Amino acid sequence: MNKKAWLLFFVLLLTVSTALFGCSSDDGASEDGGDGGTSEEGGSDAEDTLVFGRGGDSVGLDPITVTDGESFKVTKNVFETLIEFGKEDTEVNPGLAAEWDVSEDGLTYTFTLQEGVTFHDGEAFNADAVVYNFERWASGTEDKFYYYKSMFGGFGDDEGHVIESVTATDDMTVEIKLKRPQAPFLKNLAMSPFGIASPKALDEMGDDEFNENPVGTGPFKFVEWRRNERIVLEKFEDYWQEGLPKLNQVIFRSIPENSARLNALTSGEIDLADGVNPSDSAQVEGNDNLQLFERPSMNVGYLGLTTTREPFDDPKVRQAMNHAINRQAIVDAFFEGRAEVAKNPIPPVIAGYNDDIEGYEYDVDRAKELLEEAGLGDGFEMDLWAMPVPRPYMPDGQKVAEAIQNDLAAVGITANIVTNEWATYLDKARLGEADAFLLGWTGDNGDADNFLYVLLDQDNIGSNNYTYYENQDLHDLLIEARSEVDEDKRNQLYMEAQEIIHEDAPWVPLAHSTPLMAGSANLKDFVAHPTGSDNLMDAYFE
Amino acid sequence: MLQYIMRRLLQLIPVLLGMTFVVFLIIRAIPGDPAVVILGQQATEEAVAALRETLGLNNPWYVQYFEYLKNLFTGDLGQSIRTRTPVNEEIWPYLAATFELSMFAIIIAVFIGVNAGIISAWFQNSWFDYTAMILALVGVSIPIFWLGLMMQYQFSLQWDWFPTTGREDVRNPVNAITNLYIFDTIIQGRFDQTLDVLRHLAMPGIALATIPMAIIARMTRSSMLEVMKSDYIRTARAKGEKMFWVVYRHSLKNAVIPVLTVIGLQTGLLLGGAILTETIFGLPGIGRYIYEAISSRDYPVIQSGILVVAFIFVMINLIVDILYSIIDPRIRYS
């Protein structure tokens, strides 16, 4: 028995010590591997490297070929566009074009380029480089250069292609002629996909290789990309803006799980974390080593009512739906208050937002009255589609749907929650097969047209107008606004448009969410941009 | 023996063919149009049609399938639709990451699992036996997702033992040669980095090891209990052989065959089934590679990814079968 006990002890000791082998040797590593350690012990040498943790990897690094936000987050810092958005908004500011001039008729734009700009490969930036890029884009196809088609209407000789010609009138001047006025033209040019690439690098590498070895004029130059592991950017020493960038190195890492990413931030492995759960915001705010960033909202989450399906073909029923749903409760419960209750289809940051509109109040009696007027006093049964995936504008489609189901029950409407796999969901909703469906939109260029025309105009039925909503007056306004160059007049048109939409109520607008980010407390001058592509050139560590 | 291996290899061919076909069919049965998914919500119909054409999605399924097989035989695993990179170029780093992780996990699982099982059997109905078996029950039932986050909280945030996520310290990155980082850092003499890589492996490794560890422990225990009741063990003990040797030499050798089967199966499962662990710990492994491909309908990646994992699974089974005969010479193949 004694022997047995000894042996047991011995074997246990062996097992435990082997199991702990990893730990004990690792303790040593954390001491001598100090420069790789946490931010507290990182010391001065680690403080000019920013590690940016985000949810997914980039698809490609040639900005014109990609459509995903994770790609633009990186290319925004490698490439620059002729026009830049403001630091915190989508106003139009000089970028690679120092100045520009628009002709009276809105058809000719003359850009005077910034002097002294060089590409990362040493080539000079000039008018020829700009023309080269536009010619490359215009000779593409939609599956290659999606955003070019989406913003400028087509390629080459396409009927819809809005750009007539791009010419270098001298070494530093580019003239762009349009076939017809396009009001958001400058905003379109400021979008990340239209970053100017080095012609020489493109020629030498070809599209595919360039996609993995991008060369632009931005504050950081590309160093290395190991898929799903890291993308490394380094300070571009010859950057044209004096004293920028302040960081020496930026490393993008992908950590898919939001909570795990926040853990990595808390432990100092990363310095900046994208996509923080609203429910974790208190944890960030309670930690002195961390700070919370709010990304200004450029999205809308809504409940679409398919206007071709009974009983939603009756505006009264749609208005009743608007009165029946308690949006504030939804925002408080599922967005943790990190969102604004929506009353219009466009978020308030966008020029042309109509703040005079009074949103439908949560009013059960009014809803019942309207249903009564529509001859549906006894209520009705409907399918309510719940999004299967979380999106910034809809953190939990299933739960939001359940809340709406509850609200509707109070006015006598029986809603059956339906869900589908995401691609199928979109397909079927696009075909108008849903009675009512949850969906949302994140703006591309911060322009009202990118919301109202794209989502609610009759031209886009079968595309992004999932509700099949049609209104000729609205259509006339939106078309007029598309080519109205005078900013004030244009905003006026959009305000009128929002009144019509409010009255017809094809949607129940739910919320404009504020995506959250968190960073270490000593990170300064970082600003979360509404487009989701953050410029890191001003950021530094204190 | 050689003949046996040859025959098993030949038998692999229909198995592998069957695999390609099943994978091919399952994917076509998933609803949704890959062209729409790739181009996104905002795409027009013409663009979708054009992309379907370039991807060959308009061809009848058997044309697509034979095209795929033909390419496989020339070593071409297709090109990723999403990243436009050949899959056989892209897949290796992911595979290496998963390989390193699963090997680390299986070593932990086998070492602790087998020993715990043996001791439990040896001291059947003791406190150790009860504790180990309760822990094993907890181990098989614990959700990795929860366990991973809890480990991060305790071991990283509270105690600061291990880093929370990733394969390496990105501020001091490993210079990858084979993509097996332990190996890479050792051949480059960067032992500080080897330790760093081990530190990164520790938590995901343990999290991934819990389930196989528990299964192996239970299997070893029951297998050992059976063997230890047999006559030759009684004889060995009667001859005065030390109990330790009776257990670890005489009993284990006969008890190990079913355990080996379980270890083989679990190793295979770890290679393909580490998605959750890889997600929680932000590791760029094959599970996540396939998972991301599935969500963007990246057909070539899904097919090749699953095929590669299935192939490894089959190979591990083959190795286990061969090991049987090495460990137990009584097993003969005719």
UniProtKB/TrEMBL annotation, chain A:
It comes from the Bacteria. GO terms for cellular component: ATP-binding cassette (ABC) transporter complex; periplasmic space. GO terms for molecular function: peptide transmembrane transporter activity. The keyword Transport applies. Residues 91-461 form the Solute-binding protein family domain. One of its GO terms (biological process) is peptide transport. Coiled coil: none annotated. Residues 1-22 form the signal peptide. Residues 27-49 are annotated as: Disordered. CDD domains: PBP2_DppA_like. Keywords: Signal, Transport. The keyword 4Fe-4S does not apply. Pfam families: SBP_bac_5 (PF00496). PANTHER family: OLIGOPEPTIDE-BINDING PROTEIN APPA (PTHR30290:SF9), PERIPLASMIC BINDING COMPONENT OF ABC TRANSPORTER (PTHR30290). Belongs to the bacterial solute-binding protein 5 family. This is ABC transporter substrate-binding protein. It comes from Jeotgalibacillus proteolyticus. The lineage of its organism: Bacteria, Bacillati, Bacillota, Bacilli, Bacillales.
Automatic annotation (TrEMBL), chain B:
Residues 95-324 form the ABC transmembrane type-1 domain. Signal peptide: none annotated. It is a multi-pass membrane protein. One of its GO terms (cellular component) is plasma membrane. This is Peptide ABC transporter permease. SUPFAM superfamilies: MetI-like (SSF161098). InterPro entries: BPD_transp_1_N, MetI-like, MetI-like_sf. PROSITE patterns: ABC_TM1. It is found in: Cell membrane. Keywords: Cell membrane, Membrane, Transmembrane, Transmembrane helix, Transport. One of its GO terms (biological process) is transmembrane transport.
